[in-house]
UniProtKB/TrEMBL annotation, chain A:
<feature type="transmembrane region" description="Helical">
    <location>
        <begin position="94"/>
        <end position="114"/>
    </location>
</feature>
<feature type="transmembrane region" description="Helical">
    <location>
        <begin position="364"/>
        <end position="386"/>
    </location>
</feature>
<dbReference type="GO" id="GO:0005886">
    <property type="term" value="C:plasma membrane"/>
</dbReference>
<feature type="transmembrane region" description="Helical">
    <location>
        <begin position="69"/>
        <end position="88"/>
    </location>
</feature>
<feature type="transmembrane region" description="Helical">
    <location>
        <begin position="448"/>
        <end position="471"/>
    </location>
</feature>
<feature type="transmembrane region" description="Helical">
    <location>
        <begin position="491"/>
        <end position="510"/>
    </location>
</feature>
<feature type="transmembrane region" description="Helical">
    <location>
        <begin position="275"/>
        <end position="297"/>
    </location>
</feature>
<comment type="similarity">
    <text>Belongs to the binding-protein-dependent transport system permease family.</text>
</comment>
<keyword id="KW-0813">Transport</keyword>
TrEMBL record, chain B:
<comment type="similarity">
    <text>Belongs to the ABC transporter superfamily.</text>
</comment>
<dbReference type="Pfam" id="PF00005">
    <property type="entry name" value="ABC_tran"/>
</dbReference>
<dbReference type="GO" id="GO:0016887">
    <property type="term" value="F:ATP hydrolysis activity"/>
</dbReference>
<keyword id="KW-0547">Nucleotide-binding</keyword>
<dbReference type="InterPro" id="IPR003593">
    <property type="entry name" value="AAA+_ATPase"/>
</dbReference>
<dbReference type="InterPro" id="IPR003439">
    <property type="entry name" value="ABC_transporter-like_ATP-bd"/>
</dbReference>
<dbReference type="GO" id="GO:0005524">
    <property type="term" value="F:ATP binding"/>
</dbReference>
<keyword id="KW-0067">ATP-binding</keyword>
<dbReference type="InterPro" id="IPR050166">
    <property type="entry name" value="ABC_transporter_ATP-bind"/>
</dbReference>
Length: 528, 258
């Protein structure tokens, strides 16, 4: 029983040891950089937690509540979307596209707008938590609902039963491991969403506390809050993993690999139908946009429609000036986001590769990498900027760190799934670790790497804009925060459009690259 | 609970049966055209080279694929009508047991899918018949390949179908286990006179288990040999095996397996 339910290596000692080494490193880093006022070591953090225990506990409860409600709403939405995609396969492409575009909305801009809509209270926190959650769950469910062996479905059909029976008796349970994986990724994201929502002017919660600590340059408290948030996120991660094991769902056999010539790749497959799809998608986005404003009866003062954005950026006499202001900030942000994104991916994958050449080290560090993935790096952004300067390095570092941990965890996890017989085969030929890596482990890692590269696109933009908003005072983040406070909502909505479109395009680009690479090097990893 | 009356074994008739698959604009003829009659209550083995379309034939009879041409009648009904009434059961090469269900739940699932009342007694009876009495609460992952096939056979039989379609049910188990399963399991349905279509790669299995052996050509599946099986006649088996092998070897270029 113990070996079956053990989440990773049956022997927890190496993990414990690695955790101790990491904490020692953390302390050493903090001590070495003590005069920079950036890092607080584990001892200082423990001290701050002990000192402000009751305040942290109360704030955590508030944030946790918003995150939980948003998490629930987001997952229900994901299930509904996946249900639509499964029931109406022709709509799947459109549903996926819409889901992606709304996932790419920049929180730094949607947060203040939600604050205006909801006023005081926890509406924005809950909404952002839901927005941060639903897409990963939707993707996982989509893979899970389709990754069902054909003979299981044939079994249902051989008794003359239809799609509903398939769903009830086979697909629902078969997709459970994928759903659990989605919940596990979504839980820390929901927590981060709730915290960013609190940044926009909530009265209470960990996010509020965090802003206060950052503004006061209270290094210990900032790290104490980040540590608390990370611990809570990691706890949620383990909780859902445990729940999955109780329900008999092991880890999913395939982690977030995308489908090959599925309808969601329309753009690469046939340019003709891809163009039609793109037009349909744009129409759908505009429809939802206008529908939401009209349906919720939002005031035209702050709720701008597509026609307002069009006027602001194109048809208005001042459009050229508007565009200049917007795109200066946009290029500023992009020029920091992309290097940070690439560095984060490279470091994450690189460290995973280094670790995997020492298999025992890799299995020991995987649980730690997963725990670290939950650290809401964004909340420590101002400290990084403070230490590394308001120039490019600070923001790039935050973006890279934000992406580094999820990539490391995903790549380690992916390589751990290299089929045993394949590794045995390499052993029988006394293959070098390098050959093993090149021919077995890297192909096994590729789908996980690309999945995290795709998901990292919106996170990278979130990290960059948050750093700009809270610390550097440059780029889109600062521009959006400024326009929110000066009620220049035309500019704010235009900024949302530009960022969401950019994120969606980069996501699509990574996706196309993924298809090319996987098709060549790891075609067996593609779900047909 | 009253024992539900078993479906009468039906006669299966294929007329002008054809199946063409379209793979990326390329048409691949998988089956036929075939005219075939499977007599009620008899076991027919279908042998042929890999990928010759014999599995497709089975899936057509089960209503899992639609024919491109021709008709299939099972008794007086279409395959779709028969599946809806749970008049047939299909055994898959990979057993197709749902991993999150125990053996008992897997067997009971067939009754659920067939919209029959739950019948714990019958489920347990069948589990005992296939020799899994002590594994009723076990999940498939903890069973050997042979045990999984036993569970799958129990699931096939629990609805008392008149027609059994077996797609290499013992193809994925080792030779020793296969021999044992061959000795024990087929009597379970053959005693009841179920109409059975058995797709197999094993010439010996075809010869010893069936009343009739059909040998198929490479794709599209056409019949190149039609022999009387040697189920009740051990003395005739060596000659039959020889005959099947030569029908296979001569027509397909495949080395006969002894």
């Amino acid at each position: 029983m113990t070996t079956r339910t053990a989440p990773f290596s049956p022997n927890a000692l190496p993990t414990l040891f690695a955790a101790c080494v990491l904490i020692a490193l953390w302390q050493a880093l903090a001590s070495a950089t003590a005069d920079m006022f950036v890092f607080a070591g584990p001892l200082a953090v423990l001290g701050a937690i002990a000192e402000e225990g009751s305040l942290l506990l109360r704030s955590s409860g508030i944030t946790l509540q918003s995150a939980a409600i948003g998490f629930f709403i987001g997952n229900v939405a994901a299930i509904l979307l996946a249900g639509i995609a499964l029931a109406l396969p022709r709509l799947e492409q459109l549903v996926s596209g819409l889901a992606l575009v709304f996932f790419c909305l920049p929180f730094v801009a949607t947060g203040p707008i939600l604050r205006v809509i909801f006023g005081v209270g926890d509406g924005p926190q809950i909404t952002l938590a839901a927005l941060a959650t639903y897409y990963t769950t939707y993707l996982c469910l989509l893979v899970g609902l389709r990754a069902t062996p054909g003979s299981w479905l044939d079994l249902v059909r051989s008794y003359g039963r239809g799609r509903l029976s398939e769903l009830i008796h086979v697909r629902a349970m078969a997709s459970l491991p994928y759903f659990i994986a989605g919940l596990q990724i979504g839980a820390p994201a929901a927590f981060l969403g709730a915290m960013v929502g609190e940044f926009t002017g909530a009265e209470r919660g960990l996010g509020v506390l965090s802003i206060r600590a950052m503004r006061g340059l209270d290094v210990e408290m900032t790290w104490a809050i980040a540590t608390t948030a990370a611990a809570l996120s990691a706890a949620a991660f383990w909780l859902f993993g445990w729940l999955g094991r109780c329900l008999g769902a092991g880890p999913p056999p395939l982690l977030l690999a995308s489908r090959q010539d599925g309808p969601s790749v329309g753009m690469t497959a046939r340019t003709g139908s891809g163009l039609i799809y793109l037009i349909l998608l744009i129409l759908a986005v505009l429809g939802v946009w206008i529908g939401l404003i009209k349906g919720l009866n939002l005031s035209p003062f702050f709720a701008k429609g597509p026609q307002d954005v069009w006027a602001f950026l194109v048809s208005d006499p001042a459009a050229a000036t508007n565009r200049a202001a917007l795109f200066t900030a946009f290029w500023q942000t992009l020029s920091l986001t992309i290097p940070g994104y690439l560095v984060g991916l490279a470091l994450g994958a690189g460290l995973a590769v280094l670790l995997v050449t020492q298999p025992r080290l890799a299995s020991a560090t995987l649980p730690i990498a997963i725990a670290l993935r939950s650290i809401p790096i964004v909340t420590t952004a101002p400290l990084f900027v403070l230490a590394l300067g308001r120039g490019a390095v600070g923001t790039i570092t935050i973006v890279a760190v934000m992406i580094f941990f999820p990539t490391l965890a995903a790549c380690l996890e992916g390589m751990r799934r290299t089929p045993r017989p394949v590794l045995d085969l390499f052993s029988t030929y006394a293959a070098s670790p390098w050959q093993r890596l090149a021919h077995a482990q890297l192909p096994a890692m590729a789908p996980a790497f690309f999945a995290s590269a795709r998901m990292a696109v919106p996170s990278a933009l979130l990290a960059a804009t948050t750093a700009e908003w809270l610390a550097t005072g440059t780029g889109m983040g600062s521009l959006m925060a400024l326009t929110a406070s000066t009620s220049n909502y035309n500019l704010l909505w235009s900024a949302i459009v530009v960022l969401a479109v950019t994120a969606s395009l980069i996501y699509a680009l990574v996706h196309i690259l993924e298809q090319r690479v996987l098709h060549t090097f790891a075609s067996e990893q593609l779900v047909q | 609970m009253a024992e539900r009356e078993a479906s009468m074994p039906p006669k299966v008739v294929c007329k002008g049966l054809e199946k063409t698959f379209h793979l990326g604009g390329r048409a691949v003829d998988a089956v036929g055209p075939l005219d075939l009659t499977f007599e009620a209550g008899r076991t027919t083995a279908l042998v042929g080279p890999s990928g010759c379309g014999k599995s497709t034939l089975l899936r057509l009879v089960a209503g899992l694929e639609k024919p491109s041409g021709g008709v299939i009648s099972i008794g007086d009904e279409t395959p779709e009508a028969v599946t809806k009434a749970a008049g047939l059961a299909f055994a898959f090469q990979d057993a197709a047991l749902l991993p999150w269900l125990t053996v008992r739940q897997n067997v009971a699932l067939a009754l659920k899918l067939a919209r029959r009342p739950a019948d714990r007694e019958r489920v347990d009876h069948l589990i005992a018949l296939v020799g899994l009495r002590h594994f009723a609460e076990t999940r498939p992952a903890e069973l050997s390949g042979g045990m999984r096939q036993r569970a799958a056979i129990a699931r096939c039989l629990v609805t008392q179908p008149g027609l059994l379609l077996l797609d290499e049910p013992f193809g994925a188990v080792d030779e020793l286990t296969r021999t044992r399963l061959n000795a024990e399991l087929p009597t379970l349905w053959q005693e009841r006179g179920t109409t059975t279509l058995l797709v197999t790669h094993s010439i010996a299995e075809a010869a010893t288990l069936s009343d009739r052996v059909l040998v198929f050509s490479p794709r599209p599946a056409r019949i190149t040999g039609d022999f009387d099986g040697a189920r009740h006649n051990p003395a005739a088996r060596p000659a039959l095996i020889e005959a099947i092998a030569s029908a296979l070897g001569a027509k397909s270029g495949v080395e006969p397996v002894s």
